[in-house]
Amino acid sequence: MQHTELGIVHTRTERADPEAVAALSKFGVATIHEAMGRVGLMRPYLRPVYPKARMCGTAVTVLLQPGDNWMLHVAAEQIQDGDVVVAACTTESEDGFFGELLATSFRARGCRGLVIDGGVRDVADLEGMDFPVFSRAVNAKGTVKATLGSVNVPVVCGNALVRPGDVVVADADGVVVVPRERAAEVAAASAAREAKEEDKRAQFRAGTLGLDIYGMRGPLAELGLRYED
């Protein structure tokens, strides 16, 4: 598969293991990103279109043409229960590619949400139906249905590579992509990181300083930090 393919829909997609996806859904984006080696984040301009939007699922990818949402309608047919749609564009475009009607169609297929490096509209309706969307912009400007893109090809969305079947997790902190073959490994690493953070959280509650928890005093002194009365 090449992400530059146009006019093609791949109907067979290897998705991440459902148990690993369910395990990843328990963790926040920041935890997953750190546990994975501080990689996988999309650019921070991709923001939830309403507060408390959150999603986790396997990616159905879409390559759009600017100002044209035809391929989102094509993608609806490829959605399976538990998928999220990840839409990139051949060039920058903030037109309103997606709204309440497409959300209704996607949800009927079992879609858990949308990440799009473009614009969306009908935000109040999306919030009312609690359909999570993370987008580059909110824009009432409509689109046409005239130019072929592709579905289920690798895409670059928000500077992150997303392949069909990869796991996408999104919350108030951003969007992170977990390669499908690493889903179980990253879920286990996220659980371990969260357990370690709970131990540190207890120490902070007890009044212990980060200077001591993280052993910072020695390195700071070596660099010449001085305390003066």
From TrEMBL:
GO molecular function: 4-hydroxy-4-methyl-2-oxoglutarate aldolase activity; oxaloacetate decarboxylase activity
Family matches, as Pfam families: RraA-like (PF03737)
Keywords: Lyase
SUPFAM superfamilies per the UniProt record, alphabetical: RraA-like (SSF89562)
Membrane-traversing stretches: none
Catalysed reaction, written as an equation: oxaloacetate + H(+) = pyruvate + CO2; 4-hydroxy-4-methyl-2-oxoglutarate = 2 pyruvate
Keyword Lipoprotein: no
InterPro entries the record matches: LigK_PcmE, RraA/RraA-like, RraA/RraA-like_sf
UniProt-listed Enzyme Commission number(s): 4.1.1.112, 4.1.3.17
Record text on subunit structure and interactions: Homotrimer.
Family that this chain belongs to: Belongs to the class II aldolase/RraA-like family.
Protein function: Catalyzes the aldol cleavage of 4-hydroxy-4-methyl-2-oxoglutarate (HMG) into 2 molecules of pyruvate. Also contains a secondary oxaloacetate (OAA) decarboxylase activity due to the common pyruvate enolate transition state formed following C-C bond cleavage in the retro-aldol and decarboxylation reactions.
Protein name, UniProt field: Putative 4-hydroxy-4-methyl-2-oxoglutarate aldolase
Organism: Streptomyces wedmorensis
